[in-house]
Amino acid sequence: MNTPLGQSHSRLATVLLYGGAAAGVFALHLATNGTLGFHTDELYYLDCGRHPAFGYVDFPPIVPMLARIETALLGVTPWTLRLLPSLLTGALVAMFGAYVRRLGGSLWLQGLAIVTGFAAPYVVGSGDVFQTVIFDLAMWMVSLYWFLCLVIDRRPRHWIYLGIAVGIGLEVKYTIVGLVVGLTIAVLLTPSLRKELRTRYPWIAAAIALVIWAPNLGWQVVNGFPSLVYVANHQSSGGGVGVSSALFTPTSAGVAPSGSGGGR
């Protein structure tokens, strides 16, 4: 029986689980962030941040802007520069539980998912340095969360949140294009989601994403799309948007068909 006291205990347990997990990961990074000096990429982002622009050859403007803001407020040291990635890492580990919670999993299963996130080297390790990787990962996970919400209950506001997340992601790192392709395929292949295209909300979400991305897109147009040239020249080295699309698009496209149980 769900008594007010039982609900209060449940909320407290949830807060302690998620807050404790995020705080624990954050504390771990705080204890180790100053062990090593600046990574060469960190120096690159710091220097780009000192030369503000709507874009750079190999990445959009948000990460260098954040590096500039963070160091202007807290000082230029490896430890202070890595505070934001550390915070994000804690939040992302907690998001593993949020996925399970959204799917109706018990608190025990949410805790198991959080432990899985904590044990994922790519997630926890990405917060060790200030790079586009951790910010890109954050936008992928947030975008997938809102898409999961769409698969479950189709509320119009989830389209809006997804559009915002994708738009910010496009200003963080171009690899999120792979996720966008995968989600688009998932929508087209899932009858219940495909029906949503007859409403205005997916198009509003797309417009929001384009508006957020517009400053960088305009910079690309004016400068002859230098990032496309950069990506094309780096495909053979195992990087670039094409590789990300090849790796992640099949997984992304499978989210809706496997989670929606067909049309309704």
Question: Could you explain the architecture of this structure?
Answer:
The chain has 264 residues and is an all-alpha fold. It has a domain at 132-264. It is 75% helix and 0% strand. The chain contains 15 helices and no strands. It has helices at residues 4-32, 40-49, 62-74, 78-81, 83-102, 107-118, 121-125, 132-153, 156-170, 176-189, 191-194, 201-222, 226-234, 241-253, 255-260. Helix 2 packs across helix 3. It is flat and about 55 Å long.
- First-last Cα distance: 32 Å
> How much helix is in the residues?
over 70%
Structural class: mainly alpha
Secondary-structure element series:
HHHHHHHHHHHHHHH
Morphology call: flat
Low-confidence parts: 242-254, 257-264
Per DSSP, the total helix count is: 15
In terms of DSSP E residues, the strand content is under 5%
Largest β-sheet summary: none
**Count of individual beta strands:** 0
Cα Rg: 20 Å
Q: Look at the structure and give the mean pLDDT.
A: 88
Q: SSE layout and pairings?
A:
Layout: H1 4-32, H2 40-49, H3 62-74, H4 78-81, H5 83-102, H6 107-118, H7 121-125, H8 132-153, H9 156-170, H10 176-189, H11 191-194, H12 201-222, H13 226-234, H14 241-253, H15 255-260
Keywords:
75% helix, mainly alpha, 264 residues, disordered C terminus, 15 helices
Please summarize what this structure is:
The protein is an all-alpha fold. The protein is built from 15 helices and no strands. The protein has a domain at 132-264.
